[in-house]
Design brief:
This protein has 17 helices and 38 strands. It is an alpha+beta fold and 644 residues long.
Length: 644
């Protein structure tokens, strides 16, 4: 099988138009036929395939709307406080409860609270009753033959009640689109498999299947198919015979084992191969065996975006329902966002409300970074005509979470520590609705974010070379420090993370320049990087002499992972990260890790909740269990600028 090439790289709008125009022209798109289902909770979210008309009126009889007595209104007209009227029970008045049929010949109800006196055979009233007072007349709510629900209506819980009240027990709804999902790749293994080097857990099909269910479809999962033209062809042919839409995941690019476009050409027609979007450029749109076909890239972020842009509107057309746009807000970019000219770029971001100003921070943009899907609060679209987004620029954000949720989120930008993950977990559990969102840009980046008003708190562990003091000298140097305070989160062990047994015998910073030793670093501005540079400077070591100095990771776990997978022999990080990945640890120093906050936020309800969690025994026990932590000052306000 020959190597594939991109047939085109269509702009997004053109790709959408070409795809749906071709599907309409070939008569393979449109509202699916209806099917009859019971009017019950299983009908929630289904789309009506025809109008629903009432079979009976509601109420279908004149009903008493209050507890009291049914009366003939004309027999009460003379009643007043001066001239009470006594009605004989059984003749002029009949005792009635709410919901009882109104007795024939009677036209009003007097509430029991308005009866002055009641005996076994009579009641006394001091006010007249108007005709049809406290009576629900036939058809007051629903009249037989009345329209209850229109066609192409998404059924809600209240709609189920209305249909049942109208005597409707069966409703015709659009058949759910059946979407077949075929994962391909020799490297894929089922979740739960014993992993070997080169194995990739197949989870994209479940992401896509979740989207299908969420958007009103029925999922047909196919087993993993190896990278083989005939095997993929057979799988697509089978899927097309039993489904309305066929999705093939991976194999859409132009590699030597990317067969998807060739399979589609064999079974039908490639309409678009390559869309000018990022991520998701290799997306394939076509027809296979007469069915709409979408080939989505193998990386999860690319696959998710391709489904959002092409699968969702395709399913909506089959369900004859609109695709509701995401709510949008205007926010300020906290960092420059670089983009590729000529491509519509979709950047997932964290959104925060800091001092009444909405700010966005871009998440890691790798197409394989599935956690960017999990953590994203919104999406910023950078148009193909733009050169990117400047720091401080106003951007439109499509929200994935509500503004209320965002406004109850504490934005932490700065240094990474494993305790932040535990803190986030306990905060969400103990204070439902509150959340902690952390972006790891290093201690220096956190302080600068605070200076720009882009975060509520910043984790920092910057040691001053002259004084040996942590954090305060940097806060005084970079900020209007009188308005800030530092709260200690932990004291922690920093040291060398090494493979089990420390095979390279790393004992000190001087060992980093030994022949055959490969180092993994933290990013510029990280407190760990500052410590490294300070110690190298004391020894007179040029950083360029450290092999791997330019290999940067943004978290301690990233450093530990590099050592665990053999990409490096040693990295500088915290003890807890080494323990988490069963690595050895050579301690170097104990450092102070603080949370920087403004005076205003320190006194806020959200910070009070956060401090309550930090000071709790359960949080402290969970942190100590990771190893390498000293919590003697945890939760203490260790410095206040306004008191200095």
């Amino acid at each position: 099988m020959k190597r594939n090439v991109y047939l085109d790289e269509a702009p997004l709008d053109e790709a959408v138009q070409e795809f749906f125009t071709a599907l309409r022209g070939r008569g393979v798109i449109g509202a699916l036929p209806g099917e009859w289902i019971a009017v019950d909770v299983a009908a929630l979210g289904r789309i009506t395939a025809e109008p629903v008309f009432a079979k009976v009126s509601s109420p279908h009889y004149h009903a008493c709307a209050m507890d009291g007595v049914a009366v003939k209104s004309d027999s009460t007209f003379a009643a007043s406080e001066r001239r009470p009227v006594t009605l004989k029970l059984g003749e002029d008045a009949i005792m009635a409860d709410t919901g009882d049929p109104l007795p024939f010949g009677f036209d009003a109800v007097i509430m029991v609270e308005d009866l002055v006196e009641t005996t076994d055979d009579s009641v006394t009233i001091i006010a007249s009753a108007k005709p049809w007072q406290h009576v629900r007349s036939v058809g007051e709510d629903i009249v037989a033959t009345e329209l209850v629900l229109p066609e192409n209506h998404a059924i809600r819980a209240v709609d189920i009640g209305a249909m049942l009240a109208a005597g409707v027990t069966q409703v015709q709804v659009r058949r759910r689109p059946r979407v077949a999902i075929i994962p391909t790749g020799d490297e894929l293994v089922a979740p739960g498999s014993r992993l070997q080097a080169g194995d990739i857990v197949e989870f994209n099909s479940r992401i896509i299947g979740g989207f299908v269910s969420e958007w009103g479809g029925e999922v047909v999962f196919h087993d993993i198919v190896r990278d083989d033209f005939d095997a993929i062809t057979q799988a697509v042919r089978q899927a097309a015979a039993e489904s309305d839409i066929v999705i093939v995941n991976a194999g859409s690019s132009a590699g030597s084992e990317d067969y998807t476009s060739a399979v589609v050409e064999r079974l039908g027609e490639v309409i678009v191969h390559g869309v000018a979007i990022k991520p998701g450029k290799p997306t394939i749109l076509g027809l296979a065996e007469g069915r709409p076909f979408i080939g989505v890239p193998g990386y999860p972020v690319s696959a998710a975006l391709a489904c959002e842009l092409f699968l969702r509107p395709l399913m909506a057309r089959m369900l004859a329902s609109p695709v509701e746009p995401l709510p949008q807000v205007t926010a300020t970019a906290t960092r420059r966002i670089v983009s590729t000219p000529g491509v519509t770029e979709f950047v997932r971001v964290k959104v925060g409300d800091v001092g009444g100003k909405l700010v966005v921070t871009p998440l890691p943009r790798g197409a394989g970074a599935i956690m960017s899907l999990v953590k994203a609060d919104g999406i910023v679209r950078v148009p193909p005509s733009a050169q990117g987004v400047d720091e401080g620029a106003q951007v439109q954000v499509e929200l994935l979470r509500s503004l209320d949720q965002i406004r109850r989120t504490i934005m932490a930008i700065g240094s990474h520590d494993l305790a932040l993950d535990i803190l986030s977990t306990f905060l969400a559990r103990d204070y439902p609705g509150l959340s902690l969102s952390s972006a790891h840009v290093g201690s220096m980046g956190g302080l600068l974010a605070m200076r720009r008003g882009e975060a509520h708190i910043a984790g920092t562990h910057l040691i001053d070379e002259e004084t040996g003091e942590y954090n305060v000298p940097y806060v005084k140097r970079l900020l209007d420090w009188e308005n800030y305070a530092l709260v200690n989160l932990v004291r922690r062990e920093q040291g060398f993370i090494v493979p089990p047994g420390n095979p390279k015998n790393i004992a000190g910073f001087g060992d980093l320049v030994r022949r055959g030793v490969v180092f993994v670093n933290r990013q510029r501005g990280a407190g760990t990087r500052v410590l490294l540079d300070m110690e190298l400077g004391k020894l007179g070591i040029d950083p360029d002499a450290v092999r791997g100095y330019s290999h940067e990771e943004y978290t301690h776990m990233g450093v530990a992972a590099s050592v665990a997978n053999g990409a490096a022999d040693v990295g500088l990080g915290i003890h807890g990260a080494a323990v988490a990945l069963n690595l050895d640890f050579v301690p170097v120093s104990t450092e102070q890790y603080d949370l920087l906050a403004t005076r205003e936020f320190l006194e806020s309800e959200m910070m009070s909740a956060l401090l309550a969690v930090i000071r709790s025994d359960e949080f402290k026990r969970a942190v100590l269990a990771m190893g390498g932590y000293d919590l003697s000052d945890t939760g203490k306000v260790v410095w206040q600028g306004w008191a200095s």
